[in-house]
Amino acid sequence: xxxxxxxxxxxxxxxxxxxxxxxxxxxxxxxxxxxxxxxxxxxxxxxxxxxxxxxxxxxxxxxxxxxxxxxxxxxxxxxxxxxxxxxxxxxxxxxxxxxxxxxxxxxxxxxxxxxxxxxxxxxxxxxxxxxxxxxxxxxxxxxxxxxxxxxxxxxxxxxxxxxxxxxxxxxxxxxxxxxxxxxxxxxxxxxxxxxxxxxxxxxxxxxxxxxxxxxxxxxxxxxxxxxxxxxxxxxxxxxxxxxxxxxxxxxxxxxxxxxxxxxxxxxxxxxxxxxxxxxxxxxxxxxxxxxxxxxxxxxxxxxxxxxxxxxxxxxxxxxxxxxxxxxxxxxxxxxxxxxxxxxxxxxxxxxxxxxxxxxxxxxxxxxxxxxx
Length: 372
Known about the structure:
- The protein is α/β, with parallel strands linked by helices.
- It contains 14 helices and 12 strands.
- The strands form 2 sheets. A 10-stranded mixed β-sheet has the order 2-1-3-12-11-4-5-10-8-9, sandwiched between helices. It has a two-stranded antiparallel sheet with strand order 6-7.
- The chain is globular, with a radius of gyration of 21 Å.
């Protein structure tokens, strides 16, 4: 298969983790005889510095012409710490989602058995956790009309949803549940919000077309609690933009590191793949950022194009690195491995993804993986 992939490294650790994802895609090319053509562009804070806008026209054009977009991270403290800033890096990502029509964000939350002790939650609570969040991505309060009075003392953000916006992601979530464990939980605040009541009305009606899927409802405050108390109860979670943003970050606690969670943002014509973590500017250039979430985003990209064997090879290579302890310090405090070494190790295991390979433990202990 030939694919044109737009690379948007972004800010902070984005370029470092994205570089590891490219290594893994190149390993997939070599192993499975595909061809991926990469073109890079700026977005976010670096784009503001260079072009005066967080999403230059050339970047948007590249993304629209690509088969898929692979994204690093976005954000910079000089904007975060300045409430008066009118142009912000995050505006670039929001506009990109809107322009590409990426209305569905898919975020898997799964516990790796080899890392179960990393979670602050008890192993007996989180063991076996495997759910996916379907978050609406181009509507709601993030995109609603914003107002600040002349005195700067009263502000408002409007949360607006249409039946069409709710319907299209609901169908995707129900179809996903059919291929999983046939359970969908709608997370809303229908006891207070009119927009949530519309969500509940539309999703209930659509659910009648999927009789094999059990539909449950949960208020977002209870859902936030239940994700910690009993995460195994969830299969597919469907929710609106802001609620999904919050609970998916909460879900990262289950696995022990936000550096493990990948995501896909898809629409009718375009798709973007990225880790859910931020730009982590404190770690920029230190070779300590966890690249696993970015690499697992590659697996989601491959699955999107029906390359299931290739995606499985990436996931198996990641699993081997986790089991062997070839991880960054956020997962193992005394780890001697950096971002680049973890990326190299995973890529090598994609190339040699058989079950009978041997690993040179002495070199691994020195921080150099060698496949024999």
